[in-house]
Each structure stands twice: as C-alpha cells, then as structure tokens.
C-alpha cells in the first residue's frame, strides 16, 4: 500500500510539473506522455538538472534530455528506460519521474519527501505567476562587472526578489528580501540603464536592457519595498 501511495503521489507531482512550462516550451499533458514527442527544453535555458537541482558542469554532470517530457536532466536522473509509443514502443532514456509514471514501477530512492527550501521555486513556474520577471544584470560591488540572470518577483511571495541563472532553472541562485529598501534611479552611463536597491550599507546595482524595463522594475521594487502586495492592476481595480 505504501508503494501504491508513493506511485500515486509521484504521478500527481508529475502532472503538476509538466503543466505550463514558460519561454516558448509547449508542455505535454499527462495523458500524452510517451504518446507524443515532447518539445525539448533548450540547454541554454537551464544551469542545473530540472529534477534533482544539481548544477551542471563540463566535467562531472552532462546534460541529457528526457525523451518523454523533454526536461534537461543529469545522467543520474535520466538513468532509466521506458517504452515510448511515439517511437514505436522502443526503449528510450527517460527521467525518474517519467519512468515511474509510464511503467508504474516504484524507485526505492525517495526524494519526494524533502522539504522545499526557500530557493527551490522553479523559474518557469513562478514567472507565469509573477508581478514582474525579466532578464537583468546585477553588478558587483565595484560596478565593473556582474552577473546576468533571470529576475522574478512572484505573486505568491511579492516581497522577495528571486534571482535565477537561467529562465527555466528549477532552483533560484539567491533571493533578496525587498521590504525596507529604497529604490534609487541612476543616470544613464555608457548606454546602460542603471538603478539601485539601497538599505543602510547594503547596495545592489542593476542594469536593465531598456529605459522602459528599468522604470517597470523600479516601480515594482518600490511597491514591494513599501509592503504593497497587490499588482498595479489589482490596486487600480480596488481603488475604483
């Protein structure tokens, strides 16, 4: 009975996971799994395994695609084979979740009970329910270099800025609690659209691709910093 319960739980988890990937990826419905070829998530959209969340690197962790759901996964998480109807019922490399869903077999290793950490929010998942999300650059302390990534303020956690290395990573690189920060506009420098988050001695400097995007981020961050949890549209509806 325990094995049956785990299998059913994993099946429900998979149905949730395959629903609504962002960035142009057409997600399969659960009933289509194995019957229709998936659209693969592009390698350059992820920096970590979309199942176990371990980062990829050139030496230890190669990228593989699950032939059932199209996720980018590591070798350990794709060390399974299942018959896929769209490929003439031939055995194909699949991820652990798809293997369980397609075969009904229970894998002894159970990571499903692990508590989701604060950073373990999938970028694609929360981008679809965000107050604002886009690519930005976060400069280092001397302002000469920095990291470009995918930045999200989710609707269900509107006082926190989540920073991902890529727009379909399943775990955030870091997060910044926005409450209490001041948003500071900076003059354009070398065609760069700059603004800052400032609180006491802590300063974050961001670069947006356009002036319009910069202004949108400044408004969104200022609202979160002030503790306003509604989107601008919802706020306007409430006022009316």
From TrEMBL:
- State the PROSITE patterns in the record: PH_DOMAIN (PS50003), ZF_FYVE (PS50178)
Phosphoprotein: present as a keyword of the record?
yes
Keywords attached to this entry: Cytoplasm, Cytoskeleton, Guanine-nucleotide releasing factor, Metal-binding, Phosphoprotein, Repeat, Zinc, Zinc-finger
- In which domain of life is the source organism classified? Eukaryota
Q: Where in the cell is it found?
A: Cytoplasm, Cytoskeleton
PANTHER family, A to Z: FACIOGENITAL DYSPLASIA PROTEIN, FYVE, RHOGEF AND PH DOMAIN-CONTAINING PROTEIN 2
* Protein name stated in the entry: FGD2 protein
Q: Which organism is it from?
A: Uria aalge
- Give the organism's phylogenetic lineage: Eukaryota, Metazoa, Chordata, Craniata, Vertebrata
Q: What gene is this protein translated from? A: Fgd2_1
């Amino acid at each position: 009975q325990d094995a049956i319960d785990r299998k059913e739980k994993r099946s429900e988890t998979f149905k949730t996971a395959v629903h609504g990937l962002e960035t142009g990826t057409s997600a399969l419905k659960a009933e289509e799994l194995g019957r229709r070829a998936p659209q693969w998530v592009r390698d350059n959209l992820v920096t970590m395994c979309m199942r176990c969340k371990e980062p990829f690197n050139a030496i230890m962790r190669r990228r593989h695609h699950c032939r059932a759901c199209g996720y980018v996964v590591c070798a350990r998480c794709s060390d399974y084979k299942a018959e896929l109807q769209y490929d003439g019922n031939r055995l194909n490399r699949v991820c652990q979740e798809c293997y369980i869903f397609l075969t009904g077999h229970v894998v002894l290793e159970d990571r499903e009970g692990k508590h989701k950490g604060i950073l373990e929010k999938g970028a694609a998942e929360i981008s679809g329910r965000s107050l604002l999300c886009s690519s930005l650059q976060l400069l280092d302390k001397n302002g000469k270099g920095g990291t470009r990534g995918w930045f999200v303020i989710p609707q269900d956690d509107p006082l926190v800025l989540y920073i991902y290395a890529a727009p379909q990573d399943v775990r955030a690189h870091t997060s910044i609690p926005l409450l209490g920060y001041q948003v500071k506009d900076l003059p354009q420098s070398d065609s760069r659209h700059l603004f800052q988050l400032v609180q006491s001695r802590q300063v974050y400097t961001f670069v947006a691709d356009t002036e319009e995007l910069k202004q949108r981020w400044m408004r969104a961050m200022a609202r979160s910093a002030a503790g306003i949890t509604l989107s601008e549209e919802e706020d306007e509806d409430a006022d009316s």
